[in-house]
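pinging the channel bc i need a second pair of eyes. not urgent but kinda urgent?? the chain im working w is below, pasted from the shared doc
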Amino acid sequence: MKDLFLLLSPRALGLKNSIFRAGSGVKKKVIVIGVIAIAFWAILFVLSARMLVYFQSVEVIGDLLAHHLLSMVLLTFFSLLIFSNILTALSNLYLSADLELCHSSPSSLEEVFLSRCIFTVIDSSWMAALFGLPVMIAYAWVYRPGPAFYFSIAHTGLALAFIASGTGILFTMIMVKIFPAHRTRDILMLLTVFAVIAIYILLRFLRPERLVDPDAFFTAMQYMSALKTTDSPYIPTHWATEILWGQLNEGGAKARFFEIILLWSTAFTVFFINTWTAGRIYLKGFSKAQEAKSRRAGSFILDGFINMIKTPLANDIASMIEKDIRVFFRDNSQWTQLLLLGALVIVYVYNFSVLPLENSPIRLEFLQNILAFLNMGLAGFVLSAVSVRFIYPSISSEGGAFWLVRSSPLTMKRFLWGKYLLSVIPMLILGETLIVLTNNFLHVSLFMMILSATTMFFAVFGIIAMAVGFGATYPRFKYENISQVSTGFGGLMYMISSVMFMAVIILLEVGPVRIFFMAEMRRLNITTFQWTWIVLAFLSVFLLICFTVYKSLRLGVKAIEAYE
């Protein structure tokens, strides 16, 4: 075990040095991040607490709704943890730059494997803890449980993280063993199939329509029976839900010893299965991952796609774009992130398809317009999340070879514009797909469909420009894994800025849309003053987007030119 602690120490020492030996600039960043995190937790806590208080005010079924919501939250986080661990395990176990050094050291295979498993648990679980803790504290604030509830949160969360990580790591080891690294395309195709199946099972487990459509049941007893029905007694999140709910609703009087034993015995079983499996297939999979990649049978498709993109571009920008595309499809840790993106898009669109709009007490026309604006904000947030993962690190992805770019005839302005142009078409397709599909499910008017699609079309240019600009302002050329680049201070600032950018656009368009809507509903003529307001509002949106694109890229060029 001595070597295990030695293998873990570099990350621990790096974290310690970044906190206690950081300069004033880094400490300011830590303070800013801390303040933002506290504000985010406070908002999430208030929203969760208000929802639970509302549930408590509903007689008979209030506690059933709160119990079912707890089950849905845990199941959602657990499913996302498994996806995250699959992607993170592929990088930590097979693709990290220091793995060759670790495997050539006197440390045993088990110790190297365990150290990488611990890194995978930490890297994959901290985000779930960040989002989940305020929700759990909201339950504690509303239901006033005893101190044992907080201990239950800690140990059930840890057990679920171990089970999810073990499942993801085991799945990754088996896939790498079956399919050699140079056949990554086959691995990803299989992973995509499993991802779609897992998402479908998750949505069927949640059955959210039962909570919002009691009219679908013939009697109140049937509705209550449906809420009381457990999702599945065989999944770990059900055991965790019963443990926590026993502390919340029963004051801790009824200890869930059986569920606790089931949860932790499963965690230990997964751990031993992974250790046993790693001793037999991990080293062979790692050896295959280091082999040179052979030319894939479908590479002519990629060649044709690249040639099509290069045709209208200048030689310098075309060469850079070709390099970025080829590096992206050769890097397993980059390519596999598309699985998680696909899962998020499917869930996003599905949620709009099951909204019970006809049962809302709000007039349908008003509700559709409200949801259309909400949809623009949510779609903008999804695009920002995609950009921070794929576009923001594009400058840092040059790594130690960035000096080649600086010493080449390619100017930094054209360098950033090349990064920008590479991202425009796929992001436009993604943004318009989200808007058109979800608005179609909302049955919005033709005016709102055109307005939303047009606004999102132009907003994409600003979102991409900010990602490139922030990525150039806060580059990180020394990294172990490219996915770590977007988790720093610059990535956080970009997400905040992009969310504010979309919020300002929506606020500017609310007034004109309300004028059009009320004029149509009441059959009124739009006055000259209102037309002036409408023109100025939409012109302001256009100028805001143009200013964002120009300023972001200009600041990025200045920052990257001044970089030593």
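so The chain has a mean pLDDT of 77. and The chain has two domains: 14-294, 362-564. — does that match what u expected or am i reading it wrong
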